[in-house]
Design brief:
CATH architecture of the largest domain: 3-Layer(aba) Sandwich
Number of domains: 2
Helix content: 10-25%
CATH class of the largest domain: Alpha Beta
Order of helices and strands: EEEHHHEHEEEHEEEHEH
Largest sheet: 7 strands, parallel
Length: 294
């Protein structure tokens, strides 16, 4: 989410091309620059950078020097997920008891060797296809779109948050190739689409709503004329459209929106980065329309 000033005058919170300490520049990470809809391998050790906690949530992994809580070694503290299914193959979940075919939702490799992915408990040991099929039965009817003109590092974060809120789809507008680093493989569980420009996104949205109707496009940027998101009732079925980090929504994207909302700033900064703005917008939608997941 940007501050509405002309390109070249903005000083976004995270400049385009910024690299965190210890990370390689994007152009040195080939896996982060791949076309949409091309699966990439899981990250060793689960790849999520978080420790699983009861209830399927995630907490920050303990990185303090000198070991881990409970007397565990740092190696043990870094372990995520679960080990092999207790009891071996004879105890694996099957359709009709011992000797019957394996429940097709389960992955034999994960059952045998453990599941270190960053997934909630209900999806432990499930195949990716089974997880996607189950999520598809309860997708929320909002979509998230983000403009992609300069290989924005925030797109992966937006994708990961869209997975957390079980968005109906993610739409990359502009360049087909996008930076997947922050997605942490969560795009596997989403439907990711590409549109060459804002006009193409609007053309798709014209018939993508309930019963073939139109999906309204809601922009996020603090530009002149934008409306505070606080107190605004987001449509249940809609597209949340975000712009590129530091430059915000392009004029074409702003013109395509039914309304442009901004997140009120209470400190000294004029803007939030696109990843944070997307998370706030999705949570605002969820507070109005989502019900707790069983």
């Amino acid at each position: 989410m940007c501050d509405g000033r002309p390109e070249g005058e903005r000083a976004g919170d995270v400049p385009v091309g910024h690299v965190l300490p210890g990370e390689a520049p994007v152009d040195q990470v080939p896996a982060g620059d791949v076309p949409v809809d091309v699966p990439v391998g899981d990250v060793p050790g689960g790849g999520a950078g978080v420790r699983d906690v009861p209830g399927g949530g995630a907490g920050v992994r303990d990185r303090r020097a000198g070991g881990a809580p409970g007397g565990r070694s740092p190696e043990e503290a870094r372990e995520v997920g679960v080990g092999p299914w207790p009891g071996g193959p004879d105890a694996w979940p099957r359709l009709a008891g011992p000797g019957s075919p394996l429940d097709p939702r389960y992955d034999p490799e994960l059952l045998a060797h453990g599941d270190r992915r960053n997934v909630v408990d209900r999806y432990r040991y499930w195949t990716v296809e089974a997880v996607v099929a189950d999520l598809d039965t309860r997708r929320h009817p909002f979509h998230v779109a983000i403009e992609n003109w300069a290989h924005d590092l925030n797109i992966g974060s937006v994708v990961r948050t869209a997975n957390a809120f079980n968005a109906a789809g993610v739409h990359v507008v502009g360049r087909r190739r996008w930076n997947r680093r922050g997605a942490m493989v969560t795009d596997r569980y989403l439907h990711v689409h590409h549109h060459p420009d804002a006009a193409a996104l609007v053309a798709w949205a014209a018939g993508a709503g309930p019963d073939g109707g139109r999906l309204p496009v809601v922009g996020l940027d603090n530009v002149p004329g934008s409306v505070p998101i606080e107190g605004y009732r987001l449509p249940r079925a809609c597209v949340l459209l975000l712009g590129q980090e530091s430059t915000g929504l392009t004029p074409e994207a702003q013109a395509a929106c039914d309304v442009v909302l901004h997140i009120t700033q209470h400190g000294s900064t004029r803007s939030l980065n696109a990843g944070a703005a997307a998370a706030i917008a999705m949570h605002t939608w969820a507070l109005t329309h989502a019900t707790p997941t069983p």
